[in-house]
Design brief:
This protein is an alpha/beta fold. It is 27% helix and 30% strand. The chain folds into three domains: 40 residues, no CATH class; 194 residues, Rossmann fold (3-Layer(aba) Sandwich); 134 residues, OB fold (Dihydrolipoamide Acetyltransferase, E2P). α1 runs parallel beside α10.
């Protein structure tokens, strides 16, 4: 039985107390480290092991890349039963810190005045923080700025009923946007927004996110702009983006650029791509900027509106079509069937839960020549690739990308061809 426990790293031996037993695995707690690995590192964050954001700061970075490659290879073989896939070495970062362009803070009032932090591992206990070494430096400075704003007379009312603060920053423009999440539209945020902005250098807009879909939701279903503009400007490679706090946009801009570079060498001879789960068009715009006709399908109508606006911004509206609707339902329509029939490549970038059987079966029926599947979850990637293999496809190269350094997460791009 597999035992999941935070603390030991590959090559170490530990005494572990079993805390919970499930049907196929157990959860344990580290009691004593018996044999220590030479690959163990000193964590650089004082709340590592308490905060739930990072899991492997105590493993040296080259070993993180090797371990993540093994995660992908093991999932494909053990969970997917896929033999012969060529899993390459993980592409990492030159400096695997200060990379996250998005930060979601919890507003904590347990001590009276608002403070800010992240959730603890596997709980909703708040870990107060003064800094975060994995977010961009601009966002790191915002933590102190928010603390000062929460105590300043002109801006403290902004946090009266705030549940979360979500901030995004851009590498290219150094612009940032901030959103405060409340249950209902905030009457206090608007009058205090200009004063709040003075504590957040580079911020170009502040929004109120409200009506969260659940108690755990970080963003609300509705947005209103209370200061400046709701979007920042970002540029990756030759692609420009306007990004809001709620945008479906990868958190590591540098790694997105590396994926662009990796894909660019495979574009020869491709004239038509269907981009499933396209979000705000991150990869659709990249394909279009390289002269390829793209049809993107996305369930979230706000993301589709952003994708169309970003296509105009990049002057590729004539090469892009974005359809709003569930991917599986859209592919069952006459237009969906015709779109797949014309595609040289289908590109998938689904959420962590992966794709679904109706979508994968539609790809099999259409006999799409090539499928490029980008996944942030090796387990669901293995499950979905196994279904494609059963439908007559072959998995070739699989390239992991370290989109989330210092964490247990890994992005992998699988190249699949019809046999």
């Amino acid at each position: 039985m597999v035992v999941y426990v935070l603390g030991p790293i590959p090559g170490e031996r530990a005494r572990v107390r079993i805390e919970a037993v499930k049907a196929k695995y157990a959860i344990g707690e580290l009691v004593e480290l018996l044999i220590e690995s030479s690959e163990r590192a000193e964590p650089f964050c004082p709340v590592f092991g308490v905060c739930g954001g990072c899991q492997v700061q105590h493993l040296i970075y080259p070993s993180q890349l090797l371990w993540k490659r093994a995660l992908v290879a093991n999932a494909l073989q053990r969970l997917g039963g896929i033999e012969g896939a060529r899993v390459a070495m993980t592409i990492g970062m030159n400096y695997p810190r200060a990379y996250r362009n998005k930060m979601a803070l919890v507003v904590d009032r347990s001590e009276g005045a608002p403070s800010f932090g992240f959730y603890a591992a596997r709980s909703h206990e708040v870990v107060p923080i003064d800094a975060c070494p994995v977010v961009m430096p601009q966002l790191d400075r915002y933590i102190g700025g928010l603390q000062r704003a929460a105590r300043a007379p002109a801006s403290e009312a902004a946090f009266a009923d705030a549940l979360h603060v979500v901030a995004r920053a851009a590498h290219a423009s150094q612009e940032a946007v901030v959103s405060l999440t409340t249950r209902r539209p905030s009457e206090d945020l608007g009058p205090a927004a200009a004063a709040l902005a003075t504590h957040l250098p580079g911020v170009v807009g502040i929004t109120n996110s409200y009506e969260p879909s659940s108690e755990n939701a970080v963003m609300g279903r509705r947005q209103s702009t209370v200061f400046g503009r709701p979007e920042m400007r970002e540029r990756i490679d030759e692609v420009q983006f306007r990004v809001s706090p709620a945008s479906f946009f990868q958190v590591n801009s540098e790694m997105v650029g590396k994926i662009f570079d990796f894909l660019r060498h495979r574009l020869a001879g491709i004239s038509s791509v269907v981009d499933l789960y396209c979000g705000a068009g991150t990869f659709a715009l990249f394909f279009a900027k390289n002269g390829i006709r793209v049809v993107g399908i996305e369930e979230n109508p706000n993301a589709v509106r952003e994708a169309r606006a970003n296509a105009e911004l990049n002057e590729v509206a004539d090469k892009t079509t974005f359809l709003a609707g569930r991917v599986d339902a859209t592919l069952r329509t006459k237009r969906g069937v015709e779109t797949l029939a014309e595609a040289n490549v289908v590109f998938l970038d689904p959420p962590r839960k992966g794709s679904d059987e109706p979508t994968l079966d539609a790809l099999v029926r259409a006999r799409v020549p090539r499928i490029w599947y980008l996944s942030c979850n090796p387990a669901t990637l293995a499950r979905d690739l196994a279904r494609l293999v059963a439908g007559g496809y072959r998995v070739g190269d699989v390239q992991p990308f370290d989109m989330f350094p210092q964490t247990g997460h890994i992005e992998a791009l699988a190249f699949v061809e019809a046999v």
